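User: Fold this; tokens only.

Assistant: Input:
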Amino acid sequence: MGLLDEAREKANCYISPKDFLCFMSYKLGEPIQEIVSFLLYNNFDELVNEYYIDRHYRIYSCNDIDRKYKTSTLFHEIAKDGFLVYMMFCNSFYDDCLEDDDADLDFYEPIEIDFYYSLEELQKIGFLKKLNLPLEKGRTLDYSVTGDDMVTAKEPKDGIRTFKLIDTNIVSEAERAKQEQSIIDEYGENSQAHNFHKLITMASRGELPQQKTGFKSDKQIINELQEQVAQLTTYHNKAQDKVAELENRLAQAKTEIVDKSANDEPTHHKSVGSMQALVTTLIKMAEYDKEHLADPYGELNKLIQAKAEALGLSVKKDFIAKWLKKADEVL
């Protein structure tokens, strides 16, 4: 016999809560969530003792090492959404796979299942004794737990025990695509039903964006709004200054236009106003100077010549006569 064989034999007289719950579910054909409710109904959490076994097979009660009892909290957490969901949460928590602001942390309390029940004491609890279950067998089997909290069990292979959590709600990509196409055919691609389906799909894949910052306090919101109001006020004042500047420039431009209009003498011979003034003058003067159409240098023609030169026009020979002929055609 080995040095620790006796110690190991004593440790084998204890069963973990996971093995205990899974074995009862397997033997009674009930979901673990129902098993937990049954145990709480019978005040199991008040009747049972909890023990700890270290790596040297030393066995301690909660009172020996000043530990708090965990059974009641554990069972109430499992009762929320079932054993599989809660175990997956605990695995993620203890593997550091959860963000600090993960919503599950506000809903579940992680419990490390590192304690045991005494098989001898369990068999002495009245309502468990009536079930007549070989609880000692529960610590030797392989267990698989599905999404509906039902348990299957089998003998371990090569003496190595396994414990599986099987999420039966997982849908293959092919099946998911088929479901999506069915929704599109019935409700349309841009329908609320299709958008909801896409949202659920993203959530199942863990693709929904996580909020990385906490919610803002009322004070933070008020401060941000005050800053925005201050910025808008600054923009408004700058806009008013710009409008005033443009109005001043417009008034100045109007004044310059009025001043230019008051001057009878156009300054550029190519401007439309200068040409109109010249034509008007020619037409009016041609009315009184038709007898001088052939003479480019009549008395009135000299006035026209002076007017043209004042406008900066180049007055050549027959210049006035040609314009008088054009004026005569207009009249």
